[in-house]
Design a protein that fits this description.
With about 400 residues, the protein is an alpha+beta fold. It has helices at about 15-35, 50-65, 80-95, 105-115, 120-130, 250-265, 270-285, 295-320, 325-350, 370-380, 390-400, and strands at about 135-140, 155-160, 160-175, 180-185, 195-205, 215-220, 230-240, 245. The protein starts with 16 loop residues before the first helix and ends in a 6-residue tail after the last helix.
Length: about 400
Amino acid sequence: MNRERAMVTPDDLDLGLVAQSFRSEIRQWLSDNVPPGLIDVDPESATPTQTAELQKWADQLYRAGYMGITWPEEYGGRGLSAIEVSVMNEEFDRARVARMTRGVGEWLVAPAILKWGTESQKQRLLPRILDGTDVYCQGFSEPGAGSDLAALSTVGRTEGDELVITGQKLWTSGATRANMLFCLCRTDPAAPRHRGITYVLVPMRVPDGSFNGMELNPIRQMTGEADFTATFLDAARAPLDNVIGGLNNGWQVTMTTLGSERGGSVTTQHVPFAKEFWQAVEIARKTGAVEDSRVRQQLAWAFTQVEIMRYQGLATLGDVLTGKESDVRASINKMFWSEYSQAFLDRVANIRGAEAMLLPAQPADSYEPDNWTRNMLQSRSSTIWGGTAEVQRNIVAERVLGLPR
């Protein structure tokens, strides 16, 4: 297996003059501006010092006009297409530096606002996402409403010009770093399941700095981290002006957000998996495991899966170029990479042997596995978040194969 093999990449494709011009522009900008200290730094495993530098890098990208590039120009974007997003991802990968975004605010909340928000909401809310003023976390899942999101029981009632929200949300990612919660609540309990739901943006704190009727309880994961919280809402208040898409129309708005969550980065989704693969090859060589024909077979399998991911990305890009609907392809891609990741990391643990069962030296009251073990444990959630593998199979069965519900 040769990393330098010839292959067709998006860089070899004629994506049009706009994409070609944008590629030249951003390649030159990155050449002039990439901080040397951030080359090959993964935001997921960055040190506190690196995290601070990554935040500065994000602000620099914003000032240069590289946040929200698909948004219309009147809202701070550049009016470019998904093709240019793909080009951007490729160039950041080429430069070996993280492409920082404004998180779920930029790639989950903003698409919902752009499609369903009023002109006043777009003018008010979108700039605050781009400049980093508003940092969002997601309030969808509940103890009794995960994959079956329409079973949510959090209640919202109108009181004057506010929506008052009471209930519990679970697996709220990044809640301790956020100041805004995009939340689903049931505002018409008499309506059918998928109706009577409202999508609202809730400030997490009031002007004096105290919580806005919220209590955040961190959830410790298998990795030892606590990236999620159980979020309890007790009369949390949001202005009715923060309801997106109108009262009781939240399910339609939610479909826009979920479609964005499952879509991923079209042509570069395979890149981190390719890097992991070659790192695993090096481990197998160093440990001598590569001499085992079974290990070689497993590595060959992994190489094939990553190549399939790459071609799926090119096919999705083809859908974009021809204007085809790609929601179902997004479900197929999500199902494919999430299940591959679990299987691959299990195989790497076997290749590593006893080392995979040991923790690095650390204080007795802490628990922090190395990156391989951390990724293996985290991969357990990848077939759940963003729509479970079972849900994705139902989408493919019904929309592609025409099977009955």
